[in-house]
Amino acid sequence: MSEPQVTTDSRPVRVRMAPSPTGPLHIGTARTSLYNYLFARHVGGTYVMRIEDTDLARSTPEYELDIIENLHWLGITWDEGPQVAGGEDVGEYGPYRQSQRWDLYAREARRLVESEAAYHCWCTPDELEMVRRQQERDHEPPRYNGRCLSLTDADRAAFEAEGRKPAIRFKVPAEKVTFDDLIRGEVEFDNALLGDFVIVRGDGVPLYHFVVVVDDEAMQVSHVIRGEDHLSNTPKHIALIRALGYGEPRFGHIPLILNPDRSKMSKRKSQTDMTAFREQGYLPEAMVNFLAFLGWSPGTEEEIFTLEELAARFEIEEVHKAGAIFDKDRLDYLNGVYIRHLTDEQLALRLRPFLPSTLDDESVLRVVPLIKERLVRLGDATELVAFLTETDDDVASRYEPDMLVPKGRSSAEVAGALELALKTLGRLSHDDFAADELEARCRNAAEDAGWKPGDFFLPIRVAVTGRTVSPPLFGSMELLGRDRTLARLEAALRKLGAAEASHA
RNA sequence: GCCCCCAUCGUCUAGAGGCCUAGGACGCCACCCUUUCAAGGUGGAGAUCACCGGUUCGAAUCCGGUUGGGGGCACCA
C-alpha cells in the first residue's frame, strides 16, 4: 500500500461512510461504503462510520443494526464509529450518531443566524406547497421565494402569536461555485439558481445538508466520497462550509448502480437489500469482488480479487464516470467461482445454515464434493440434498410413474430394468454399497439388458432422488445407503405396477 | 421547466492519438467431455467505439455541437 497521503490543505486522510438507518443495507450504500473503505485502506487513511439518523421518524435501531452487521459481513471495518470492536463505539470525535449531536448543530445554526447567513422562516409546509405549485404553473424554477427574508418585527411577532415555530433557512449566496471532483474533475454550479433551503426544521430538527457539513468538519473528514446523486447538492454544502468558516474537503462522486432500465437502482425494480442476497447464499467475497468492479477496474484482465487485493490496487482516480447496471448473471457467475474455490471443509461449514439440522455434519462433508460445482448460491444446496433427508414416501410422492420412463422405452421395459437393478444391487452388502462399485454393477446390468447407460440410470435416479435432476447418481446412492436406496427402487416398481394396473 | 453529470458488444469493462481490421469477462449459440444437471474444454455470433462536424499525416481516444440516458432542484437522506 502507498504511503499515507495528505490533502491539499494538509489534513490527514479521513473518510467517512454516513448511512441513514431508514432501511436495511442497500446495495448502493454497500458499494459506496466499499469504495470509501478501499480508498482509506489504500492510502493508509482513517475510516469513520457515522449514523445519519436525524430523521427520527424513519430511523430505527433495527435498520442501524442491519446496516452495521451486513457491512461487517462483507468484511468492511471502520476505525472510528459505532460498534468498532466488541460492539463498542470508538473514536475521539464521537458520538457517532447524529441524534446524539444536537447541541453541536444547534450551536452552529445559532452562529449562522447571528452572522445573518441564515434566517428564521415562518412559512408553513402548506404555504410552501402552494408557492411551489404556482411556480410549476408559471414554469418557474421550484425554489423558495424569500418571503421571510424581509419580515418586519411586527410580522414576526404576529407569527409568534399564531403559535408558529420558525424553521431556519440558509441564505444561499448568489455566486458561482466551483470544485475539483476527484472523479469528474472541475465542476461548476451557479448558486444564484438555488433557493434558500431549510437547515433546521420548525421543531428544531436539523436537516441533512446542514448536519453533513457540520459533522464532516467536526470529524475532520478530508475526502467526501459519495454517490453521484449528491453531485448537485455539493454546491449547497460548499456554500454552507464557507459561511461556517470550515475547511473544504475534497469531493468525489462515484457513479450510480442502475436498474436494468438504467435508472437509479431501486427496491421497486431490483433486489437491493444486502440481507436478501446473504440469505440466498451469496458469498461476501463474491459480493465485494462484484461490487468493486461496478464502476472500477484495475485496468488489466484480472477479475478475481480479495478485499485486501482490491485495497492494494484501488485508485479513486480510476473510478468511472458512467453508471453501471447491476448484472445479476455476472454476480451469479462470480459466486460460483468463489464457491468452487472453497475447500470441501470450508464449503461444508458455510453450507450448514442452508441445510436441515437433521443432516449430520459427517453427511454434509460427504455430500459437498457431489454438489460443489453445481452451486450458484449456497442456498441451492437445500434442494440438491433434500433427497437425503426426505422420507421414502416424500420422495415417491414427488414423481409420477411416467417420469421414470425414458424416451423410446415402455413402462414394462422400465419395470424390467428396475427389477434388474434391484436384483443386482441387492446382492451388494451394506459395506460394498460404494459409488464405484454401484456404477460398475449398474453399467454391467445396463449392457446385459441392452440399454444405453443414460437411459438405464434415469429411472434409478428418479426413484432414488424423486427428481430428474440430481447430484451424481452413484455418490447419492452411497450416501443414502443400501436399505433406503433399495426401498426407493421397490417403491418405484410398485408405482409403475399400480399405474400399469389402472391402465389395464 | 432549470441546473449538473454521463455516453466502447445485451451487460460489466480494456483502451489515456498510430500496438484497434477495438481486447477480456458474463450472458447467448454450437461442439467436445458426460449417468441427469452442472462444472470444464474448444469454437462462434455479437460494438460502423451514440450522431454530426472540426483539430491532426493519423481519433474510440483531443475540441465543439446534436441526440439519448441519468441525477438533482423538500421543514427526506
Name a few traits of the molecule.
504 residues, two-stranded parallel sheet, 46% helix, elongated, disordered N terminus, RNA-binding
Helix/strand layout:
Elements: E1 14-17, H1 27-43, E2 46-49, H2 61-74, E3 81-85, E4 88-90, H3 102-114, E5 118-121, H4 125-137, H5 153-162, E6 167-170, E7 176-181, E8 185-190, E9 197-200, H6 208-218, E10 223-227, H7 234-244, E11 250-254, E12 257-258, H8 274-280, H9 284-292, H10 307-313, E13 324-325, H11 328-341, H12 344-351, H13 361-371, H14 380-384, H15 386-389, H16 392-397, H17 411-426, H18 435-449, H19 453-465, H20 473-480, H21 482-503
Helix pairs in contact: 1-10, 6-7, 9-11, 12-13, 17-18, 17-21, 18-20, 19-21
The protein binds one RNA strand of 77 nucleotides through helix 4, strand 6, strand 8, strand 9 and helix 6.
Question: What is shown here, in short?
Answer:
This protein has 504 residues and is mainly α. It is built from 21 helices and 13 strands. A hairpin with a 2-residue loop joins strand 3 and strand 4.
Describe this structure in words.
The radius of gyration is 32 Å and the shape is elongated. The N terminus is likely disordered. The chain is mostly helical. The strands form six sheets. The chain has a three-stranded antiparallel β-sheet. A hairpin with a 2-residue loop joins strand 3 and strand 4. Helices cover 46% and strands 11% of the residues. The protein binds one RNA strand of 77 nucleotides through helix 4, strand 6, strand 8, strand 9 and helix 6.
Radius of gyration: 32 Å
Span of the ends, CA to CA: 78 Å
Mean pLDDT: 93
Describe the largest sheet. 3 strands, antiparallel
Number of helices: 21
Structural class: mainly alpha
Find the count of extended strands (DSSP E, 2+ residues): 13
Strand content of the residues, in percent? Answer: 5-15%
Strand order of the largest sheet: 5-6-9
Cα shape = elongated
- Report helical residue fraction: 40-55%
